[in-house]
């Protein structure tokens, strides 16, 4: 097997020592409530989940004081009036690392940022422009979970030539390069193995042998064959159950 496997990799929440503010949608909103409104148009790329096709599509967005408009190339594809947004919240799907939900009467818009910096930029700018009630409606727990779900996750591509130990080291290296605003507690990557889940088949397994090739595991093979994203979580080698291993980043 020569195909790399796209993965969403999670680090345990207990490893996160500090996150530079703003840490959540509510924090971003409160921060901007204390500062003058920025009248400039916010521009950039986000990934939008389709209404019929659930796949995320890359779109160019422009945010003004009144609306969020998105384009495909030079063609305008849609406009979300900010006055129609009743709720701004983190996306609940753990496989979407930087997901944002905008709830309107017509539909729930699901957007995804490419990284933590873009996530903070867009959530801060949107929260600055919508009604305070749209942000206040989201529960503290949802914000807390959304913050850590995004901060503890990184998107990687695992080579079939990697051993489990190689994969853990690679994930940690990618995480440190991506999350420059996050400080981690000191830890040894060799203390960790991987818990893997093939989402489409609802199968999971512990990759507990550090020397074994990741390509030899069923979950890796399943996701490569289906061209789906694999979800993996760093777990301590001493931990015995999936529940104890995964609840750290889910709580």
From TrEMBL:
Superkingdom, natural source: Eukaryota
Record SMART domains: PH
Residue span(s) of domain PH: 39-131
The protein, known as: Aste57867_19628 protein
Annotated signal peptide: none
Cross-referenced PROSITE patterns: PH_DOMAIN
InterPro entries for this protein: PH-like_dom_sf (IPR011993), PH_domain (IPR001849)
UniProt lineage: Eukaryota, Sar, Stramenopiles, Oomycota, Saprolegniomycetes
